[in-house]
Amino acid sequence: MADLLTMTDAGLYCEAGDFHIDPWRPVPRAVTTHAHSDHARAGSELYIAAAEGVSLLQHRLPGARVEGLEWGETRTIHGVRVSLHPSGHIRGAAQVRVEHGGEVWVASGDYKREADPTCRPFEVVRCHTFITEATFALPVYRWAGPDAVMADVVSWCQATMASDGCAVLLTYTLGKAQRLLAELAPHLEAPVLVHGAVEPLNALYRAAGVTLASTQLVRDTPVRGGVRGAVVLAPPSAAVPAWLRRLHEPQMAFVSGWMRLRGTRRRRSMDRGFALSDHADWPGLLQTIRETGAQRVLATHGDSAALVRFLAETGLEAAALGAVMPGASDADEDGA
Fold it and tell me: Which domains does the chain possess?
């Protein structure tokens, strides 16, 4: 039997249903896992996405034709049954379940297993073949509990503010920024100052009923060191002198799973690094693969080779999907 999903020059393709999943080139029908730029590319005729994430996708792809599916709702496309299930990555992020000819495949998109107040938790979907991300697929990547990480973030922010400095949290604009604002809300009285790229996304989350800390745009504050004793949220690209000049003694921290490694923190010249990720760590990947009951695993993104080798040694049929989308995604958006 031919594979239900195959990789083409436009991305992952279901020939039986004539649709793509997260294509990197314009196609007639794109089933889209979530609104990060490495998964949602402009130009397709139709996007099918989780209803919960439609507003984010439309914000990222103005004018796009988007149809929303409720969680678990089945859409039959040329005889292929398609449904979307929460991946726990960011708000509206989905796994794609594809069923045809007695075979069930699940394309995970990006996913995490830790709790997140801004999105639905990961749902285990049983399948024959599981396509898993492998962003952090090395044993060194093991996350501390999110409560412990956030306690460190809050403690660092409070200490920085107490010395009249500005605690600048650099992170991804969609998903991670809102997760931080939700976690910080019970601990801060003053508004969090945010970069202009973050606030429109905050508004979409608030409109959906997600509680975030109050925010104020940095550009609305006085210039030249006028801001003291504040928490500031911005994408990594904002860490330049021209933007930071409004802030008194800014202390810089990067919030990302990449901060698990000390060498990465040193290379980025950060004062602090907090390993809070929107992707599964090594134990989370193995747990998920086991729980799906998949007899075959295809790995994509990240260190696929290491994961495939480990799975093969345990007796599973495993292979690397082997394709990477042309053009790197915006580092301010990829949600690591």
Answer: 6-140+278-320 (3.60.15.10), 146-274 (3.40.50)
